[in-house]
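Sample A.
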Amino acid sequence: MLTFIELQTPAGESLTDVTPRLREIVAASGVPDGLCVLVVPHTTAAITLNSALDPATAQDILADLRRLVPTRVDFAHQYDTPADAAGHIKAALVGHTLTLIVAGGRLLLGGSQSVLFCEFDGPRARQVQV
């Protein structure tokens, strides 16, 4: 079963919790046990597993990614803009896929774990393939 999650990301870089939508999709699928594979088909966006309980977590993740990969004008690849080039690198570091276990018809996640869609070149209409 292939499902798409459509979302509109806010301006700038952001982390969006897509866990509630994923839980709905898994429940509606009727699959009792298996794998849920997420794919982000964008070069300046990514997907990760982390805590969404404290909004400061997302702020810290984005701040450190900006520290590790600052927007600068000396990127060799600048097809669009320096921010776009930085977004490519951040997305490559975080990753474009995530595989989760489905057990008993539910996503197997820890108590504080959430699936976060990472936008590094917003705002955009984006899609996650589930």
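Sample B, a different protein:
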Amino acid sequence: MDGEHDHNHHHHGVDPHIWSSPRSALIMAENMLNAWVVADVEHQKLYRENFIKLKEEIAETDRKIATLLDNTTTKSFIIYHPALGYFARDYGLTQYSIEYEGKNPSPQQLKQMIDFARQQDIKVIFVQKGFDMKNAKSLAKEVGATIHSIDPLSYNWSEELIRIAEILANNE
């Protein structure tokens, strides 16, 4: 199992979870701003003002996450569905997925994940809201890890990403 295991379910070669990264979210926001000021020139001042506020919020979220994760020794985590790839990339982390190619793992794959988690001393397992906890619970029990329920699609996006960073920073 290698560091690329975090990319085991790309949708036709592309990881669609770009919102898990404040840095990618800023790019999306800039692209939306550019589209709106062209499409609705009359209100471009409002769009630009709102973008400045959003840009500040995104930058503050990025700073908080970077500060939390800067000195943590916890650089790897397991997640049921690999939705934090861009988050991991931006903060020097590695995610490993329980789900394999969009499916529950086979017993052999689960055993490999258990062996790998023990070898790497991974103690954090994330499971997104609405996903099956069964395999995560088995894995956590076998390796002494803690399971944390997360919601990367939360309306309070920045708070949720900061909470994920806090979990990683506090599981040393």
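Observation for Sample B: The longest helix spans residues 44-70.
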